[in-house]
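User: Show me a protein chain along with its predicted structure.
Assistant: Here is one chain, sequence first, then structure tokens.
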Amino acid sequence: MLFWTLSGVVMVVRPIEEVRGTALLRPEAPVKLATAPVAPQLEGLSVQSLGLKSRSDGPRWVITTTDGKSRMADPATGGLVSNYGAADAVREVEARYTGDAKIAATSRVNPADPPGDLRRDMDGWQITMSDGTHFYVDSGSGEIVARRTRWWRFYDFMWGLHIMDLEAREDTHHAWIVTFGVLALLSTLMALVLLPMTGKKKRNGSAKPTQQD
């Protein structure tokens, strides 16, 4: 119960915007086109959504297929473009990053075994900054899908501890948390009843007359 209370304090000690690193990335730039865009060559893709997005190397069609994957196409020609490599992912982060840290490392994200602070089956890149912040770039869409500060990772661990789900950190309704919630309520009610009684006993004990010779 002590750790439960401590984890709750940790989650409110800093503004959530600082935890999430909201200010570390500027918003995507508005899409600007000199001429009308050419429709993308879908080449038999089963499309779920289609939109124009700004990327570090210019506007791009972003195509999301029904299987959840993404591809990009050049709006000037309509042709599909290659998925992002490491250099492309770095350039995307550098174009929007507002902090002072430097890029320390770049690594490929394995969709079958994503990092613990991502927890999604993304095919892309992890960009590690010198201050410990991680940026995740989807290789298909070129989108920066997640930013993870060191404080976010600590906060995430405490959140998992608080809801007693250290694996997925999503289940807020299970036997353990309900049991501890009930115990916390009962403990508080018992304290409200017993503490005044303890104080009353002490006052009565001190009021007893002492025996005189």
